[in-house]
Fold this sequence. Notes:
Blueprint: H1 6-18, H2 21-28, H3 32-46, E1 51-54, E2 57-60, H4 62-85, E3 94-99, H5 101-104, H6 107-118, E4 123-128, H7 131-140, E5 145-149, E6 159-167, E7 169-174, H8 178-181, E8 192-194, H9 202-211, E9 221-222, H10 226-234, E10 239-243, H11 248-253, E11 256-258, E12 268-275, H12 282-296
Parallel strand pairs: 3-4, 3-5, 8-9, 8-10
Antiparallel strand pairs: 1-2, 5-12, 6-12, 7-10, 7-11
Helix pairs in contact: 1-2, 1-3, 1-4, 2-3, 6-12
Domain HTH lysR-type: 4-61
Family: Belongs to the LysR transcriptional regulatory family.
Protein name: Pca operon transcription factor PcaQ
Amino acid sequence: MREISYRHVRCxxxxxxxxxxxxAAEALAVSQPAVSKTLRExxxxxxxxxxxxxxxxLRLTAEGAVFQAHAGLSLLxxxxxxxxxxxxxxxxxxxxxxxxxxxxxxxxxxxxxxxAERMPGVTLTITTGPNWLLLAQLRDGALDLVIxxxxxxxxxxxxxxxxxxxxAVVAVVRAGHPLTADPARAxxxxxxxxxxxxxxxRPVVEQYFLxxxxxxxxxxxxxxxxxxGRGLLTRSDAVWFISRGVVADDLAAGVLxxxxxxxxPIPGPVGLTQRGGDAPAPxxxxxxxxIRDSVAR
Length: 297
């Protein structure tokens, strides 16, 4: 096999991240033909197709997904080596963590404060997003750790998951909502806020409606963002299906109320996901310890 260069790997990872040759060219500040040529060279040297068309976007093939897992890690290690040789650089003084919105409101703030007390001077960068995006960024090396839900086996290839807890999906309304006085009243007639398509809890909500003999509804809004959902609920009679962790503080404060809907399924475990391979670096291990301790409290 002919040699693969840094240019090939960087180009491939940008296309995989953005699902577009044109957008990858913009991100890399090169022409679109140059990106297309680099991708063709890489596929020729590997002897496999890395992407396939999915509408107007590009999607990784099975071979592409395997290569992404290793390419992201190799690029990350190369970047760490460059930083280690920089004058005055201190290795491992920044940890990048991706968290689901359900984790961002309670668990992650407590864990971040615990980590800051134990490891002063280290920056903890925290980003939120859907589970699929966080896992893709973890593979690419943009994130060091993800706190999210256990994905399907194919999406977890090359990754290691450690369960922290199991979290339920709930239906919540504002305090004083008509359904709080009449819990047996049907949801029909009330506007619904659903998890977005692609959210890992969306099938759970759809399964609930099918189990009670109804077609999965189309909500008037779709979100898993706490601020957006809270704003919609407090200004309307809407019902929001969301992970309990996202609204835990509002439920405790009495701003929102959980409806008793028997049969609403539990979507599965929430935990730590990291790249497979060697044991985590010391700083990352400290972040994980702070998260575990925060769950235990």
